[in-house]
Fold these 4 entries.
Entry 1:
Amino acid sequence: MKIVCLIPARGGSKRIKNKNIVDINGKPLLAHAIEKCKKVGLIDEVWVSTDDKQIAKVAKEYRAKVHKRPPELSQDKTPSGDVMVDFAEKNEFSMMIMHECTSPMTTTEDIEQMILKFLNDDYDSMLSLINVPYYFWEIRKNIAKPISYTLDSVPITQEYTGHNIEKGGLYIISRDVLLRERKKLGGKIGYFLIEHFNIDIDSEEDVNVVRKLL
């Protein structure tokens, strides 16, 4: 069985210039992701999918392989599933773990344990989640409505199990299912619960928080 890790890292980020290679404590953000993935003994190859020469240079510097991403798959609204399918159509492997480098608090141990759970529990695909103990509401046409409970039955915090949200930037899928479903998740979908603090980098403030935490 060949396990590959794919790190999507296109150029041209809008909110943070060169977000994927922004400096985090003396090292590009992408480098942190590559290094943690290369420490996972279960992973055979670490790849970076990019359209950007500077990002490709950083990837090679940190001993990752580079998959040249076509321009049509390097747009703001390109689904990550399409990027994964593009890689799968051009490379042979058994299963892929996709790690978004913008989730730098995700650890090597998270990745390793998630792969083991995927292999042991016979899933077709898997994603990382975190549990948040908050009451969720939706806003429609300026009207607020609870979606975690009804106003007739408000759970007490001690008994409230919270909600699971997609976070941690980790996805696993077999190559066969990826090519069949052509999405990042499909078939029998499992989950891996990340139980420590996690953050996705979307703003300069997030960058500063991560610098302090790391």
Entry 2:
Amino acid sequence: MKNISNNISEVFMPFKALLLYAKQVDKENTQQEKEVYVESYDIGRNGSPVNAHPLSLKESIVLAEVLQSGQEMQNGFLKCRGVLPNNLLYVNSDKTGYAVWHTPPMERGLFFVKGLGIPSGKMNIPAMVWKAGRDNLQVFAIRGSRKPQIKTTLYHAPYFNIYPGGAVCMGNVHIKIDRNTYLEDFIAQWERYFFESYFSHTLNGGSQVKGNIVQLWKGQAGTGQKFPEACLVKNGLTIEKVIR
């Protein structure tokens, strides 16, 4: 058997135990409220409960904060206001949950820093796949306009400010998505964050296209022409690999 103790970075030790007592109620009186008494125990050095005492106010406050923290960890932004959006591909509802969705080819306003020499404005972009949590975003490109399937091949998103794995550098954009944000708003908010920020630079081999990415977008600016999908570069991923 492999010893994994060295891989464990955090150790949690018991320090308190709670024992709940319920007063016996009259079985014939179903309306009678059940009285509950909570007794607190400290945990001794040998792991045995010691110093039994009624739950104190201070201990009650700590317990309430723990329970409140657990409630806040729920991903409210993964809940839909209505029916599931048609462009939704996958939702992971764990405490570090995320959503995966797609957008078809479209015309969208893009912003570039002056140093790139690319005029900002409306341009045609390829279909995209998005994966986002509360504070991180990955984007990918796909060919065609159909809704992607589990085996659909993904391509590097042909934009600046993107790492090779698809993670987006949001720079100084202030990401503010609270846990009560509905899924529909969560998706729309991330798309605004991405498209309303300024594209400025390439990152560690990200932003891959066939040819020169600056010339690519210069050629798109103000032309209204369809995005040239032939310039997209495969990244070795599929939808299946992204959602797992």
Entry 3:
Amino acid sequence: MGIEQDKVDLTCALRAAAEMGLHEGVCNHFSYAVDDKTFLINPQGIHWLELVPSDIVTVDAAGNRIAGNRAVEPTAFFIHSRIHRAKPSARCIMHAHMPYATALCLIADGRLEWCSQNALRFYGRTAYDTVYNGLALDDAEGDRICTALTEADILFLANHGVLVCGDSIANVFDDLYYLERAAMVQVLAQSTGKPLRLVPDEIAAATARQHAGERQQSALFLEALKRRLDASDPGWSRK
């Protein structure tokens, strides 16, 4: 898979996220490390529904644009670049202010609870940053956020949103989608005022391993989303 295909896949993930209401205005960022010095990221100021592959910007490890015609929003680089460099396994990073997952970030001691099958795929993979320092506009804040991801690939950012990391665009988008679904049903269940039916740790861990063995579903999901885009916007992947 070459960089042009990476741009197609990243564009599809961004457009699909917008269709599903996982985006926020023209903010939030998805990035993908082509190698240890080169990253793809969505540009500043373009609505995700209007993105095409040629809009995707290529930057180096210092944040310099090396390909693409558009600028990159500053907070995108300070967060994403630090994680890409410090956590090689985080080849893809998706940051979004998804409504239900973000709602958990606004609650004192808010946590994703092991109460739904969708939530169990994240068992042992989540971390929580409980400090909010405003916009991430310097390396220090990016490094601080990155430290919270040392032992996890899903990070809930206090008063902010979520970061989802992984080894491929397909896997990370699938996780982003199911993280929001898990948060949604949890918030709905909690709104009844009745206690959650929590899954025991032993079963939660075993189910997480089962989910990890079914990652072909993630690739199939992204391929299905690309077929939908082909039908609604013929030629989008060549623009």
Entry 4:
Amino acid sequence: METKIKEIAERIRALREIMSFTSEDMAMACDVSTDEYNTLESGCKDFSFTFLLKCAQKFGVDMVELLTGENPKLSEYTIVRKGKGLNIKRRKGFKYEHLATYFKNKLAEPFWVTAPYLADEQDKPISLSSHEGQELDFILNGSLKITIGEHTETLNAGDTIYYDSSVGHGMIATDGKPCDFIAVVMKKEKE
């Protein structure tokens, strides 16, 4: 994974330099300090999903381009076979599997997400992040406790939540087992 982190960091640095953005510009766009941004861009620390999404939005590129170095090319349809999506491990224990890796000009980023059950997080406040756009999460199996702003809800298999993802949000699996869900992250409309 270390090599992959370094490769992604190099792509981020190269795009920042090509677009003449400063580290401060990127830090502001990604809601991190300049020191934190520089640490991430150097490849010394793994990236969060939100950080990668915000970088891609600032650069105006598909997030897949940051992850793989390839530009999606399909425009009519794409199929991702079970278990064959682009794996992204960007949060303690969480697994994101991108479900439309090679489709270009996506209006949304679809993921199969597996949230781990972590006993030590059950009684702690849920860590929140935010990004532009909206999100839909559909629970496939297990239970998910999700906090959005000041509200906390528990969702079970078959439940769906749709929310403004610019509001701080975070989630953990509950009931002693992992939770699988489909997350569709929709991009903010251009003004």
